[in-house]
Write a sequence for this structure.
């Protein structure tokens, strides 16, 4: 058994077809409606945003998964309009697109899994999605080109497509995972058990040809999401439409069992980790990707709480934008995280440079060396709390004037 | 009895002397060491940051107040160095300045209340503060000019001095309050009962000639701070040195009692409210001051929790910078605040313009009118949760490219 990243066309999971067209929803006129078709036997697991406010496709998607018990035949995604805060009319518009897609792709309407991303609060143009369905049917296919069309069509402010693949080789049988994601702003996913109604900003679709039941997939998806998408933040804004879908076609003939679960879980973690990293790397205005490695915590939750306070501190984030080794801001943010600790026991390193120890500036702190580390596109800041064995790796980025420009210019 | 704002020289509280000099701590060469002298009988109440990491003067100040039971004769403040994350050496340096000030101003060392603000993690130049003390003694005085020297010397990135006054007229006797504050960045004060050790960014000194005991003053200060300084945020970064000191000289001859407590509390609230507003208004890079009025909440704490999520949302803050009535971002931030609510019952107004109701864009939403309101320097956003009678007014500001520039350029 081995887990490896493979970019060859054969590493795409069997049993799926992908396609996308231009339906005129994005003002740019680019690809904006994407479809993925799975076999009737496919099983899905999904995690949605924990935001109290959710978009119509989240409400409808939850309902569909509940009524089918996790069966998904068609994934229908549009970019350009989030169908959020659109009231009952938005729900009805979403249902109409599912009904039309069911007809086109020969399934039941609740076997359609809808997603939307884009502007919030604008009436949803269901008629454009519906009118595009026949054209999508003619472009469906199973090659890398088809899968990439899907990945391109779901982009909004993303500057590049985000995909990842993994292959698990089990006694000569291959199980494949292909993941496609979008997201560049309003990124601080907090995915969990469904809560209330989401504005979709991070969308992730994970396709595999493993054979597994929804319940089994849910058990694998939750920890994979917790360590990846729930451990990244661009701006601390948790979206109303964040969605991660794991869809298993079963077409590899390999079942999830005692022998396959571990290699599959590892491969799923790799794919989720890669996509999560790509999302931060393509964050709005990002010039530095910073991994916060919080160690020596009492619990993983406390480690994450400290990392999040730093990741959301405008003062830390602006210092990173200029490669300023201002460790005082790191320490101050940790201090207001709500986690109790003794500052005298805290140890901070930027890359390999010691910056803070024994309650003060590290004697060996070399400001020029720390500054040089921070000029790299990507580096790690380690903060050891000195009071336990728990840890967390959290990926975040700097805050730049470009981020402000992008989001101040965004028009309602 | 009447409460009024009065800017005449006679409205300064009796019994105090103020002064400030240039001690060479600020790189700019401006006034940087300030002193206020109170009579031996003066009583103090103080609230410090809840940050786990606190500066040396906070540790020392707590110790002094505990040992004197709330007696403060000399307030000693420097700007330009926060004396934070400076280890045991920082504590000793702070104590040295208190001992020297006690000698100069004829009191006991623990009757000196130290404060520092400025850069974090840089060895504290106690010798500069000590060398400046004789000069300060020669410039002490009780006029508005003296009080304003004090207010100027405590400034760091502030572009203007922040002071407020109130006069309470009780049966012909006047009780005066004078407040001086500093703070422009790292502003999201969370003041409370002393927790651990603080990098001072918001400093507030409230002087009054009322006669009151420390315990009585504490009871008045906590609610006044809760409604003012604990309800503002510039960047969501809670500093390590935030300090609010209320010092009562008793020189008016009027005691705090059943008849005076209410007008005094009202006047104290006014002064704190004015200073809190001035701090946001002078926030780094601020072009718009936004009051978030959250109503219809189950509890005041939930109202504040929703307001804080919006106040700390980079997406909301950047939209405000361009007067963009992007209410979807307001709703999304409320949605991830952690407070449960039904989006269908939420009502949002920008100024007097309805923008969101019944789960969707308000039928009467006039985008141009909302945009016009948001072009004002200052306006109110009202968010009614529709599930209770509790409310909160929280003052915050926009996030601009200028904020990023200021904080990216700040050198360690």
């Amino acid at each position: 058994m081995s887990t490896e990243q493979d970019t060859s066309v054969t590493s795409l999971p069997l049993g799926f077809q992908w396609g996308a067209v231009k339906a005129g929803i994005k003002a740019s006129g680019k690809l904006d409606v994407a479809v993925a078709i799975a076999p009737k036997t496919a099983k899905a697991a999904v995690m949605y945003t924990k935001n109290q406010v959710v978009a119509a496709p989240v409400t409808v998607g939850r309902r569909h998964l509940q009524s089918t018990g996790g069966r998904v035949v068609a994934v229908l995604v549009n970019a350009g309009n989030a169908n959020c805060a659109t009231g009952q009319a938005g729900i009805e518009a979403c249902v109409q697109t599912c009904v039309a897609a069911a007809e086109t792709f020969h399934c039941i309407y609740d076997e359609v899994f809808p997603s939307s991303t884009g502007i919030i609060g604008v009436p949803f143009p269901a008629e454009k999605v519906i009118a595009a369905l026949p054209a999508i049917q003619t472009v469906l296919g199973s090659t890398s080109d088809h899968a990439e069309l899907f990945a391109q069509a779901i982009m909004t402010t993303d500057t590049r497509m985000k995909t990842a693949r993994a292959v698990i080789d089990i006694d000569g049988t291959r199980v494949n995972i292909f993941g496609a994601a979008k997201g560049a702003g309003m990124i601080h996913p907090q995915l969990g058990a469904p809560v209330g109604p989401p504005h979709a900003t991070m969308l992730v679709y994970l396709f595999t040809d493993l054979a597994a039941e929804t319940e089994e997939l849910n058990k694998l998806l939750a920890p994979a999401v917790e360590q990846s998408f729930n451990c990244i933040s661009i701006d601390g804004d948790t979206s109303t439409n964040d969605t991660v879908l794991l869809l298993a076609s079963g077409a590899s003939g390999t079942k999830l069992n005692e022998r396959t679960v571990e290699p599959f879980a590892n491969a799923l973690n790799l794919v989720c980790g890669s996509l999560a990293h790509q999302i931060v790397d393509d964050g709005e205005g990002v010039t530095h990707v910073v991994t916060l490695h919080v160690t020596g915590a009492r619990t993983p939750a406390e480690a994450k709480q400290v990392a999040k306070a730093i990741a959301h501190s405008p003062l830390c984030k602006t210092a990173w934008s200029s490669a300023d080794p201002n460790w005082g801001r790191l320490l101050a943010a940790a201090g207001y995280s709500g986690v109790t600790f003794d500052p005298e026991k805290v140890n901070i390193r930027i890359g390999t440079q010691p910056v803070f120890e024994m309650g003060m500036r590290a004697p060996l702190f070399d400001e020029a060396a720390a500054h040089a580390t921070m000029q790299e596109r990507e580096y790690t800041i380690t903060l050891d709390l000195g009071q336990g064995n728990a840890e967390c790796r959290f990926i975040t980025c700097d805050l730049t004037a470009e981020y402000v420009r992008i989001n101040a210019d965004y028009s309602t």
Observations:
- The radius of gyration of chain B is 22 Å.
